[in-house]
């Protein structure tokens, strides 16, 4: 039996979208799945190094790994009127060159932030350390991601929503592309199609059994938040729109790539549809 390791972040939406597999509700013939959880920037760096066959990434990273990985259509997280938050201590006025903590160079929020605040002095750190760094005064501001956008300390306030920055740059009402999954291109095509179908089914099953799965995650201390917060968080980032990419989500990802290209983050202009797994291959092969 082939062992396949899926690398994802430790935040609640990734845990939720994967654990239908971990709990044995969804599987794949002759494949034994296992998982590893790392912070998103470490996963981005691992993807750049080709460490894992299947790995969670920030959408902003994808043009840098397009030759080695194909994007999966499932387990995606977008913001719809919400997203990462630029936070600071209450009452503090930020200077033009304020020092800010970001969760990683290749994250979507980092690219958008750097475009919006070109004079800010950036330091990168684990996303779990950003809130305390702002409270301690190590940095003047930080960009909160994952569950922290719902649970940050009441001594902090929002300077700006990443959603608002996205809307200004995108110029239209598109969802904010944050993260998804990628699969190594060296995997045989028929097998890659099966992996994508299995992961899609896992997210669908998770959504269909949200209450039961959420209860199991909390009982086993697999998430860092309580039940009401988990419920709210999953409706933000592991909702029905996470099951498979839609037309408007494709448009949003392509707009993100266009913005990155125009601001010098990418050497070439990429369209996400050109790099997807060609699922029609299975039908042609079996016809």
Spans of at least 5 consecutive residues whose pLDDT stays below 50 are: none
The assigned structural class equals alpha/beta
Average predicted local confidence, pLDDT: 95
CATH topology of the largest domain, by name, is D-Maltodextrin-Binding Protein, domain 2
**Total of DSSP H or I helical runs spanning 4+ residues:** 11
Name of the level-1 CATH class of the largest domain: Alpha Beta
Q: Per DSSP, what share of the residues sits in E-state strands of 2 or more residues?
A: 15-25%
Number of domains: 2
- CATH-defined superfamily of the largest domain: Periplasmic binding protein-like II
Terminal-residue CA separation? 28 Å
Q: Radius of gyration, rounded?
A: 19 Å
Order of helices and strands: EHEHEEEEEHEHEHEHEHHHHH
InterPro entries: Menaquinone_biosynth (IPR003773), MqnD (IPR030869)
Function: Catalyzes the conversion of cyclic dehypoxanthine futalosine (cyclic DHFL) into 1,4-dihydroxy-6-naphthoate, a step in the biosynthesis of menaquinone (MK, vitamin K2).
Active site: 146
Pathway: Quinol/quinone metabolism; menaquinone biosynthesis
